[in-house]
Amino acid sequence: MKLSLFTQRDENTWEIPAQGRMRVPAIIYADRALIEAMDDKVYQQVTNVATLPGIVDHAYAMPDAHWGYGFPIGGVAAFDAEQGGVISAGGVGFDISCGVRCLHTGLGADDIALAREPLADELYRRVPAGLGSTGQIHLGPRDMDDMLRGGAQWAVRQGYGTPQDLERIEEHGCMPDADPDQVSEKARHRQRNEMGTLGSGNHYLEVQYIDQVYEARIATAFNLREGDVVVSIHCGSRGLGHQIGTEFLRLMATSAASHGISLPDRELACAPIKSEIGQSYLGAMRSAVNCALANRQIITHLTRQAFDAVFPGSALPLLYDVSHNTCKPERHATNGEARLLYVHRKGATRAFGPGHAELPAALRDAGQPVLIGGSMGTCSYILAGTAQSEQRAFSSACHGAGRAMSRRQAKRQWRGRQIIDDLKRQGILIRSPSLRGVAEEAPLAYKDVSAVVDAADHAGLAQKVARLRPMVCVKG
């Protein structure tokens, strides 16, 4: 993008003044190289978001921002329902509550190195992955309703994990006010056999070791040490969330005019929060959040079984689970007062700072773990929320590397078998049902995650705590 479009506030803060139909300014957090490399559509989309009714303070884009459906991926915006604020299905995304959870293993890199092949095979055998993948759980109508209301709490009641897990999950594993009655039969049908599955695209289960700690005090609070092995699980609400997004985007787009909303882009479909459509979407979206939380909880159980088969007696306690495709009501200070705002984070991670009441007691002094996934074969990061992030972007940070090229471009440039072989020579084992999917997710199809994380750190969105390197990756 052209830097002349922005007013540079500091090294990593680029503001677009309010102009035309924009109700508020927009800000993109990135260093000079990242913002220059961003697609022009990020500028167009973040300024479009700034035109929506009831938006508060600014429209934001994170350092990993790239073009999305309506909202940019990496977009953050907050709306006040009392000021006619809207909720946008495009501002949440199709993979509702896609997120990352991180598990301790109690093992070291040397332990994994001695059993890398059998562990990779066992994880791949137990955790279904790939487009249309199905698992061993088959939900009838009553079970589906219970899951959509109960989330990870439902999964724990079914024997998938322990009550202690729930303390380390957003919303204690269950998003309140879910309304399964707003979830269509088609969405339910798509999900009935998909619980406990990774799905496809950029979803993964990865065994990683910590190769660098940046902030010793916070790392100690998070129980992270150099050489430790952790497991990261990245997935969401599968077919159910996608179907909800599809249906409500269409409904919001066709009804916008009746609410007096003039959309700068049809893909930016939205509805007033207090409208019937807005409330219906919130009920369905919260159900999808619970679906995603239950899904990651079941995959956690399957992962623990796989580790126990290779390393008997291993426990894998949960560090944290955080989503990055949601809209949540949160209290934030703006213009000197605390207000209840509906914060959209699409490809952006919540990053509450130290002392926040919603954080587990054991983590509260350190701040919320912010889990940043890299691309297959590259490093990932654990960060911590900062007090400064509250003022910077409603306590939000980036969520990953962000794509640098489309999946179609990646397929033209790489072959899946070539990537698997190259990564194996680097000591990284890949297990995937799709060579095409591996090609689409080639590491170089993504931005440099280290540059993205450094920009987020320098901008005060979140603080670097530890860097993770992959050893085994089960890829959808």
What name is given to the CATH topology? Answer: tRNA-splicing ligase RtcB
**Distance between the amino and carboxyl termini:** 32 Å
Number of separate domains: 1
Tell me what portion of residues adopts beta-strand conformation. 15-25%
CATH class: Alpha Beta
User: What is the radius of gyration computed over CA atoms, rounded to a whole number of angstroms?
Assistant: 21 Å
Report the average pLDDT across residues: 96
Outline type: globular
Largest sheet: 8 strands, mixed
Descriptive account of the structure:
- This protein has 476 residues and is α+β, with helices and mostly antiparallel strands.
- The chain has one domain: tRNA-splicing ligase RtcB.
- The chain is 33% helix and 24% strand.
- The protein contains 15 helices and 19 strands.
- The chain has helices at residues 32-37, 40-49, 109-113, 116-126, 141-157, 163-166, 185-191, 216-221, 238-255, 276-310, 389-393, 407-413, 416-425, 435-440, 449-458, and strands at residues 7-10, 13-16, 26-29, 59-66, 73-79, 86-87, 99-108, 204-213, 228-235, 271-272, 318-323, 325-334, 337-346, 349-350, 369-372, 380-385, 396-397, 429-431, 462-475.
- Strands 7, 8, 9, 11, 15, 16, 18 and 19 form an 8-stranded mixed β-sheet that branches. The chain has a 7-stranded mixed β-sheet with strand order 1-2-3-4-5-13-12, sandwiched between helices. Strands 6-10 form a two-stranded antiparallel ribbon.
- It is globular and about 60 Å long.
- The mean pLDDT is 96.
